[in-house]
Amino acid sequence: MKQKMNILALTSFLLTGLFIQQVTAQDGATLYKTCVACHTIGGGKTVGPDLKGITKRRTNEWLVQFIQSSGKLIKSGDPDAVAVFKQFNNIPMPDNALTVDQINKILAHIDGGEGGAAIDPKQVALQHKVDSMLKTNSPLDILAGKELFNGDRRFENGGASCTSCHNATYNNSGKGGILAKDLTKAYSRLGGFAGIKGIIASAPFPSMLATYKNHPVTEIENAQIQLFLKNTDEQNPVQPVVEKAWFFYAAMVVGLVILLTITGLWFRRKRLSVNHAILKRQEKYSK
Ligand code: HEC
Ligand code: HEC
After folding, report:
1. Using CA atoms, how far apart are residues 21 and 27, in angstroms rounded to an integer?
2. How much distance in Å is there from the Cα of 106 to the middle of ligand 2?
3. What CA–CA distance (Å, rounded) separates 116 from 260?
């Protein structure tokens, strides 16, 4: 009897353990959502490295420090952190206000597999379509991407145009916003299609995320913008400084106008007063 009780206790203990572990793993998946914009687990590198097997490549202590603040670790001169930072074109990874416990959950999720989503045939067909679009590089898709980016074509789910915050120069023209980074060279800066795709799908930047959270950009629209940005990148060997130059010239013209107005007024007043004096004198003589 006592033995039975023990077995029962042991079984329920193990089951609870399993249950807790499952909850933990799920938490890890939720927490990991902030990382998908820049990382894959086994899908190759995008903005950041592929994280598959990361717990075998790095110590737990290193991972916790890096994920909390990669900048701090890089600044401290840690050779691995510096090397991976250089390898990824000096793109800094944002800091994360995560506890050690939360990070361990994320790492458990990364260890646990490839994201675990069941294969959905619709999704596969869509992916196939997107892949072939990206390969074809059709002028129609580039145009669609340009129009979506510039707000000349509405997003299916009604999100704001990218130009409300960004510029991208194409055919020597760009009318975009200057609130956020210029995206003319984003394609090469972020390492190709996947980098741009991830950021559009789940932006790691609060203001951009807020814009599209309830108005997601569809996969097709996303691909069209990727194509557009690939072409802005290829057209412009270096980041154009249109926006800044424009601002600079405008400031110069405004400054010049102000200067001319002030000196003009001054001379006019001076001339007026001289003329006035002569006039007065003449008036006196003519009397
Ligand atoms: C905005 C993009 C971005 C986001 C979001 C991001 N990372 Fe990163 N991550 C990078 C980049 C870029 C690197 C390469 C190192 C560097 O440039 O600092 C990197 C490197 C890493 C590394 C080191 C990999 C190695 O090979 O040593 C780990 C671990 C990591 N990230 C985990 C995470 C986790 C976990 C999250 C989510 C909490 C996350 N990252 C969110 C961009 C990002
Ligand atoms: C509400 C403003 C806003 C809108 C709208 C917006 N973004 Fe952003 N985006 C940001 C901010 C802020 C950043 C962070 C970088 C910065 O500060 O410039 C960013 C960063 C990016 C980056 C990474 C740039 C880099 O090189 O590091 C890409 C790519 C990007 N956005 C693409 C887009 C695309 C494509 C659209 C349209 C579908 C879009 N964004 C719409 C605000 C916005």
Report:
1. 10
2. 26
3. 69
pLDDT digit of tens for each residue in the chain (287 aa)? 445 545 444 444 444 444 444 444 558 888 998 898 899 888 888 889 999 999 999 999 999 999 999 999 999 999 999 999 999 988 889 999 999 999 999 999 998 854 444 456 787 788 889 999 999 999 999 999 999 999 999 999 999 999 999 999 998 888 778 889 999 999 999 989 988 998 998 888 888 888 998 999 999 999 999 999 999 999 988 876 655 555 555 666 777 777 777 777 766 665 556 566 666 666 666 55
Ligand 2: distance of its center to the CA of 139 in Å?
24
Opening angle at CA 176, ends 170 and 182, nearest 5: 75
Could you tell me the two tokens for 164? 């409300």
CA distance 49 to 91: 11
